[in-house]
Backbone:
């Protein structure tokens, strides 16, 4: 899976780690032999992370030569003629066709030009953060309406726009507060002015429209609520124009795999009533569109399976889709396609193990339910009290925490401080970092003491410190396991699961409110005492939902995929021999 070109290292030039010798590279995470409490941290350069890039994918173009077809005229059934087709939303190389923008496992963005087999790197500004999501809009550039404007969404709720060039994009604008939504995307033009607009959905399922304002200081007008009940869908895909009226449309899929078509209008209510157009679409982890792929004037759909196989669906021009065509395999190396319909996962995609000899190993998820080959670190971790959490800074990778014998908490992923968080952490028997629990877009930490009291520590956004603890509640000692790293129930908020002493498994769904970060517990299964290790590695299947790894007493590791409804699908075997690890995080 390695490419000839070195992977882009999206890290700062140096970090603070314990005074030790051994380093290990995971997917963006540097690990080190734990320091003693009296060791002074020393500066070390990060090792290059080796997650595969888009370069390593099998080469398969998203449009093949000879596919172009003449745009149809108005039929007897009333199919609209595409006399003035919608402007391509992501024509990055300026050849008149939209191109595929994608984020690879290493956090780097790449462009696959339509009709080409060769992706190339695309630099979004000068930030080294891993963006949570990205999408493109046409018509925002008043000097050149065909030039796409690229938007990125950061985990802390910053939406930023960039002036696009062929191989890079310059930062233009940023706005905050977008963490209130679990999905932000542009289907294309919904107002009839030829400029792409934005749709945003919140965890309550309300949908809002932001009309574009080209040339204005703020790119969008005030949000307009245009509907409710949109939380029933786990994929929302804008297709620019699928029925020939040059107005954007949306395909929506629910967790049952049913696909619906929403025809766009320029009215105050931007969509006509939905039409169910198919079933069986649950096999795909990401649905997206790169506009018109065959030259008939209609927006088409691309779909990727969990195994990494990519399919193309041409539009019929009536809001339905033609039978699929396979484009290629190996596309699981893409962690997030620009404009993909899923709620994007961000914050952790790793598994860490310490064997019985005290040697540490790291794995990263491959977006196909599998784990990478392990990467060896150093010895000396016997007896270490560790936790791997969802990212506390902007890099999108899990943070490694250690509580030393004197109660000092150390963060090996702290770039701005010296790694030492503070003292007094020895009173806690469990640390869990599921992501943002307070609604501010920053990763938070849960800590449980021996009396069963659970506390919330709100993160500061860079992993160097936490706000004063907030008591969540008592009685948490009834659980033998607390785990979580991302969204389980499909609303975009961080959740956790808790296993009771009788083997019952409960979901605590996040609320996004610091004072009461969880809804009432909900029983989602029994018999979970058969497993002796629980790990929340993040999203392993590429659908944006957080999954669960468990180890049975015979050393077999299983994966439970989140079903988008607050539960898990039937287990899948990952591998055997995992009893070699004393610690799994």
Residues:
């Amino acid at each position: 899976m390695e490419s000839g070109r070195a992977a882009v290292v999206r890290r700062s030039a140096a970090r603070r780690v314990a005074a030790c010798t051994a380093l290990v590279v995971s997917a963006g995470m540097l690990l080190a032999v734990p320091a003693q409490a009296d060791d002074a941290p020393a500066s070390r350069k990060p090792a290059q992370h080796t997650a595969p890039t888009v370069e390593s994918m099998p080469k398969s173009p998203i449009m093949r030569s000879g596919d172009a077809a003449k745009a149809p005229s108005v039929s007897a059934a009333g199919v609209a003629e595409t006399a003035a087709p919608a402007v391509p939303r992501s024509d990055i190389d300026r050849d008149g066709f939209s191109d595929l923008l994608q984020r690879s496992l290493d956090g780097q963005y790449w462009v696959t030009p339509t009709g080409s087999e060769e992706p190339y790197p695309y630099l979004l500004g000068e930030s080294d953060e891993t963006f949570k999501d990205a999408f493109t809009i046409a018509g925002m550039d008043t000097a050149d309406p065909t030039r796409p404007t690229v938007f990125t969404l950061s985990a802390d709720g910053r939406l930023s726009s960039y002036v696009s060039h062929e191989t890079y994009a310059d930062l233009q604008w940023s706005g905050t507060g977008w963490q209130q939504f679990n999905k932000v995307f542009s289907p294309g033009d919904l107002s009839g002015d030829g400029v792409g607009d934005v749709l945003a959905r919140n965890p309550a399922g309300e949908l809002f429209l932001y009309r574009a304002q080209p040339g204005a200081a703020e790119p969008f007008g005030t949000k307009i609520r245009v509907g409710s009940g949109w939380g029933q869908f786990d994929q929302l895909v804008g297709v620019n124009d699928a029925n020939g009226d040059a107005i954007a449309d949306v395909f929506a899929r629910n967790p049952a795999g049913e696909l619906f078509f929403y025809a766009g209008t320029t009215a105050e209510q931007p969509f006509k009533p939905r039409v169910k157009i198919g079933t069986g679409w649950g096999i795909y982890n990401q649905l997206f569109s790169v506009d018109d792929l065959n030259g008939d004037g209609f927006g088409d759909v691309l779909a990727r399976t969990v195994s990494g196989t990519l399919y193309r669906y041409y539009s019929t021009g009536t809001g339905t889709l033609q039978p699929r065509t396979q484009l290629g395999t190996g596309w699981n190396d893409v962690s997030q396609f620009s404009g993909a319909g899923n709620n994007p996962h961000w914050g952790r995609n790793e598994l860490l193990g310490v064997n019985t000899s005290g040697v540490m190993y790291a794995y990263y998820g491959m977006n196909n339910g599998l784990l990478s080959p392990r990467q060896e670190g150093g010895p000396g971790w016997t007896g270490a009290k560790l936790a791997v959490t969802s990212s506390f800074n902007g890099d999108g990778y899990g943070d490694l925490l250690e509580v030393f014998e004197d109660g000092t908490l150390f963060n090996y992923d702290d770039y701005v401080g010296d790694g030492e968080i503070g003292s007094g952490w020895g009173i806690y028997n469990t640390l869990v970092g599921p992501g943002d629990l307070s609604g501010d877009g920053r990763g938070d930490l849960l800590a449980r003491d021996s009396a069963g009291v659970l506390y919330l520590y709100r993160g500061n956004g860079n992993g160097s410190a936490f706000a004063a603890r907030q008591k969540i509640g008592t009685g948490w000692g009834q659980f033998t396991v607390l785990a979580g790293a991302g969204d389980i129930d499909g609303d975009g908020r961080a959740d956790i699961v808790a296993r009771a002493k009788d083997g019952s498994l409960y979901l605590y769904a996040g609320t996004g409110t610091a004072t009461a970060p969880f809804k009432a517990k909900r029983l989602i299964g029994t018999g979970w005492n058969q497993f002796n290790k629980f790990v929340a590695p993040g999203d392993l299947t590429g659908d944006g939902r957080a999954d669960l790894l468990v180890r049975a007493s015979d050393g077999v590791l299983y994966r439970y995929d989140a079903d988008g409804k607050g539960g898990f699908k039937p287990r899948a075997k990952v591998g055997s021999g995992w009893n070699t690890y004393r610690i799994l995080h």
Q: What stands out?
A: The first strand starts at residue 15 and ends at 17. Residues 1-49, 64-83 have pLDDT under 50 and may be disordered. The chain is about 0% helix and 35% strand. The CA atoms of residues 391 and 398 lie 5 Å apart.
